[in-house]
Amino acid sequence: MRIEDRIRRFILVDLNWRGDPEELSDHYPLIDNDVIDSLGIFETVGYLEDVEGIQVSDEDLVPENFATIRAIASLVASKNGG
Amino acid sequence: MDFEWTEDQQAYREGIIAFSRRELGRDLESRDHESSFPLDEWKKCAAFGLQALPVPECYGGADASPLTIIGAMEALGYGCADNGLIFSLNAQMWACEYPLVRFGTEEQKARYLPAMCDGSLIAAHGMSEPGSGSDAFGLTTTAERREGGYVLSGSKTFVTNAPVADLFVVFARTGPAKGFGGLSCFLLERDTPGLTVGAPIHKMGLRTSPMSELFFDGCVVDQDQVLGRANGGMLVFTAAMERERSLILASTIGTMQRQLEQSISYAREREQFGQPIGKFQAVAHRIVDMKLRLETARLLLYRLGWLMERGDDVTLDSALTKLHLSECFVHSSMDAVQVYGGYGYMSEYGLERDLRDAMGSKLYSGTSEIQRNLAARLLGL
After folding, report:
1. Looking at chain B, which residue has its C-alpha nearest residue A32?
2. Residue B153 near residue B144, CB atoms below 8 Å
3. Beta-sheet pairing, B167-173 with B123-126
4. Separation between Cα atoms, residue B344 and residue B224, nearest integer Å
5. Among the listed ranges A4-8, A77-81, B140-144, which one has the minimum average pLDDT value?
6. Which of B248, B263, B314, B368 has a CA that sits 20 to 30 A from residue B98's CA?
7. Measuring CA to CA, which residue among B205, B207, B262 is closest to residue B78?
8. Is B37 an interface residue toward A (CB < 8 Å)?
9. Which of A58, A65, A72 to mutate to test the interface with B (most CBs of B within 10 A)?
10. Phi, psi of B44, deg, nearest 5
11. Residue B100 forms contact with A (CB below 8 Å)
12. Which strand (E) or helix (H) includes residue B185?
């Protein structure tokens, strides 16, 4: 499964997002649409560290890195040397 | 499990109790009445090293561990009846020093932290606004980018320490993203042009801790006064709030211990209907409930400190601890007043002041409702 799809599943299942799954494209604005709020960002960090196996630092915790599923995937890729 | 303090920690706690009984809480009844901040006692606390607790040694701090801080603040709450002074100390340590330690540049730390430790610099944290309290990230104060810095416009309210503060840690919207996404944190010195400190706000309790509004009108801030990354204010705020939520009520364990001891003593001495009132089950059971609250609150807090020292994620535990301690503090303060009867209602015994002070604990650093919301979310609800 692509990293983008794993993140999408995390948002739907673990963050319990109640919106239309069809809308949740790789470029759907997650922060502007309240998919990820201030607590959700830390839950997402927990997912990235525990499941995706990357280490997220304070420096990484800026909105740009969590703005879309693609942005989160890019963060993971950069941590994995991508 | 070992719940004993080390010899050093125990000696430090005893030292704080002796210091606070000797030096703090002077003229408290009148200062509470006049809403007067005890600057001289603030400086004595700094000389003793309290403001230095969470700061690394290289900046004049004590670099104390979470459990050592918990033990110290518990001792302070036991020995010092001035909950307002303690509240101001907490505001300085958790909402100002801690984010500086964690997110500050070397220059920012060197400029501010030594003075914060030695008591010569008082700091205040501004997040709440007239239209955004529990919805903290709904703030509307803006910081527009300008060459070399930003221009702040807007206002803050409920800013603890503001009337006497030299430095302000404030949050403003710098990015287009809504909610938490576009926030930045700024360090503003009191003489910054365009910054106005409002008149003191009078409160139900914690009156010796001063509070006021802040106004920003074309307030120009240099780029190097950003704390943390631009648009990274959410992280600064949430980190500070988690630390504050965890530790701000440690002193109430000491206060509840003092209330319990006072209530037992009074119930043994005060006689009605031919016997000490402690022989009446209605009174005795109330005091037992105070003891039970004290011990459960203490256990939650000590466990939280233990988790913090292990480096665990304490988001849920800090919310539960803050919720439980604040509600225990209010209930036990009410019980102490009830045990003392009419005397508890009189100012000279200090119990009605404790009750007024305790009420704030269910509101500041996230209301009890917000703590429950946070915990529910983390339980997957």
Report:
1. B178
2. yes
3. parallel
4. 52
5. A77-81
6. B368
7. B262
8. no
9. A58
10. -65, -40
11. no
12. strand B183-189
Q: Can you spell out the DSSP letters for B53-97?
A: TTS-GGGT-----HHHHHHHHHHHHHH---HHHHHHHHHHIIIII
Is any Cβ of chain A less than 8 angstroms from the Cβ of B362? no
Which phi and psi (to 5°) does residue B55 adopt? Answer: -100, 140
Residue B179 has pLDDT above 90, yes or no: no
Bridge partners of B145, per DSSP, are: B150
Q: Is B244 tagged catalytic?
A: yes
Q: What angle do CA B51, B87, B13 make, to 5 degrees?
A: 55
List Cα–Cα distances, A74 to A29, B30, B184, B341, in angstroms.
15, 61, 23, 65
How many whole angstroms separate alpha carbon B289 and alpha carbon B366? 26
In whole angstroms, how far apart are CA B378 and each of A8, A25, A49, A78?
Answer: 19, 26, 17, 28
Average pLDDT over residues B338-359: 97
Amino acid at B176: P
Positive or negative: CA dihedral B228, B231, B234, B237:
positive
Instruction: Supply the DSSP string of B197-246, one letter for each residue.
Output: EEEEPP-SS-TTS-EEEEEEEEEEEEGGGEESSTT-HHHHHHHHHHHHHH
Q: Find, among B128, B51, B170, the residue nearest to B364 by Cα.
A: B128
Q: What is the pTM of this model?
A: 0.93
- Nearest-neighbour CA in chain A from B69: distance (Å): 24
Are residues A46 and B181, on separate chains, in Cβ contact within 8 Å? no
The C-alpha atoms of residue B44 and residue A42 are separated, in whole angstroms, by 39
> What ipTM does the predicted assembly reach?
0.75
Convert the pLDDT of each residue in B29-56 to its tens digit. 999 999 999 999 999 999 999 999 999 9
C-alpha to C-alpha distances, B70 to B80, B100, B128, B360, nearest whole angstrom: 15, 20, 26, 20
Count of all residues that appear for chain A in the document? 82
pLDDT digits (tens, 9 = 90+) for A34-43: 899 888 888 8
